[in-house]
Amino acid sequence: MSEVAIVGVGCVGFRPITPELSYKELMFEAAVKAYEDAGGINPREDVDVFVTCAEDYLEGFSIFDEFVPDQLGAALRHLLTVSGDGMLGLATAYMLIKTGYFDTVVVEAHSKASDILTYMDIVQFGLDPIFNRPLGGHPYYIAGLEMNRYLHETGTTEEQCAEVVVKNKKNAVLNPHAAYGANITLNQVMCSERLFHPLKKLEISTPADGCIVLVLASEKVAEKLTDKPVWVKGVGWCTETPSLETRDWTRAVYTRLAAEMAYKEAKISNPWRDIDFAEIHDVFAYKELQHMEALKLCDYGTAGKLTEDGLTALDGELPVNPSGGLLGMGYGLEASGLQKVLEVVLQLRGEAGARQVEDAQVGLAHTWRGIPTATGAVAVLSNVK
Amino acid sequence: MSVKIKHYPGEEVETKDFREGKVLFESFRPKAKYAWSAGIAISRFLEELKNGRIIATTCSKCGRIMVPPRIYCEKCFKPTDGWTYVKDTGVINTFSVSFIAADASRLKEPIVVAIINLDGASEGMGIVHRIEEYGDWREIKIGMRVKAVWKPPEERTGAITDIKYFKLVKE
Ligand SMILES: [Zn+2]
């Protein structure tokens, strides 16, 4: 089977709002950049399959996927939609190329969060209508529930969670794709409003608009298109029960199983040693810590301490979220996974500018579909075939 | 229902049983509100409708004059090169006559929706709109010429409904 590489990336945003562009224009701009980046391919001829990732309720269309081909160069071409996070689209593209039937596959995911006037009501609509929705309240109390249990079980402190915000927003200052970079203090995070005890306001990512397009190719095409292919060494994904009543509230098991799937393929036996840096879903600060443990980057209950000690800082032993994460870049909804992949690709190509991680060879990208889901995905990428 | 079976086993349920709470169910009305950014192409299109004009974008590579306008040519996958007005007259590409409304209630007057190829736009491009002032719907034919009937300028809001409808024009 052919190896699979990411040979082109294009990104627009992320920005708090993008009133000047329609979602189609946003996608067009990102697609043009990605095709140019992939050695100037012509999507009308050179792409075998297009995969777009979108959730209808976040777009305000039923059957949104029908509205995407024109702006990607995919009209009257072979297109399919994954109704989920962009990393599931990456996994789909990877499998398509692995079949040997397709050489070049494009993946797109975007967020036009600023077009959604009732975002929290849409999130609320994702809750079980019999058991949970009638209780009312802001749906982010689910994050509060999980954080509380996680802190209780692991002994992780609120301050350690707050450290994640300080670190990520600081990294984001160095990232031109980030909407919410800032130099803030631990005290500022700790003193920010307690919205869903124990979760505080500054520990919650703010949505942002943007679009990311990737071009993936088989080995033989990849080496023709670029000098800097980034190889997909393994992908994995997993979904836990939707039932809030019975799911595991501590360990993000969906992420552990997704990681095990990806590690097995990528032959990663010791993640802390084998992985040079990681982009981890941090829509809430505590999630970065919980996910680090589920990804087996450290022992259960130790992520908070490692963060506090600076080991996950940009110059630490295992930089986590050099991009600034979702706390710093802005929460790109179903594009979150590709925000992570984008950063890993830029880092592995040595194009991450002031936030470049030195000697990066293997990077991990991880995503979660957010409240109220328990779906995660993982990709292990490397600049070494 | 099969002629052989006169009565299916089980409990019969009527609408009033739901109303009276004998049958349990949960109902929920989603609060889903959006405000889509019109963007570069559609903003200009809507602005021009307000002026009583229909605007298109052009592609220098394939030579098409595209309406509704977009900032990219989906055929050539390149940015468009310019703007040009097309006429508010055209030809019926296809049409259909609806006799019932979305809730399946019978309409007093049928609604005629047509795909209209606008004069000045490239082949097969134009607008979707209603046809009115047609007399008997049986008189409407594919290929007939139509013209826009606009709202008075002070009533236009920059919406597709700034054109009230298209009417048939005698050749
Ligand atoms: Zn063209």
Please outline the helices and strands.
The complex is a heterodimer of chains A (385) and B (171).
Chain A: E1 4-15, H1 23-37, H2 43-46, E2 49-53, H3 56-59, H4 69-72, E3 79-82, H5 86-98, E4 104-111, H6 119-124, H7 141-154, H8 158-172, H9 186-191, E5 194-196, E6 199-200, E7 209-218, H10 219-225, E8 230-239, H11 253-266, H12 271-274, E9 277-279, H13 285-294, H14 303-308, H15 325-329, H16 336-348, E10 362-368, E11 375-382
Helix pairs in contact in A: 5-16, 8-13
Chain B: H1 15-19, H2 39-50, E1 54-58, E2 65-66, E3 72-73, E4 78-79, E5 82-86, E6 89-100, E7 106-118, E8 126-132, E9 145-150, E10 163-168
Parallel strand pairs in B: 8-10
Antiparallel strand pairs in B: 1-2, 1-5, 3-4, 6-7, 6-9, 7-8, 9-10
Bound molecules: zinc ion.
The site of zinc ion has 7 residues of chain B, from loops.
What descriptors fit this protein?
heterodimer, A: 385 residues, alpha/beta, Peroxisomal Thiolase, Chain A, domain 1, 2 domains, nine-stranded mixed beta sheet, two-stranded antiparallel ribbon, 11 strands, B: 171 residues, mainly beta, OB fold (Dihydrolipoamide Acetyltransferase, E2P), five-stranded mixed β-barrel, three-stranded antiparallel beta sheet, 2 helices, elongated, binds zinc ion
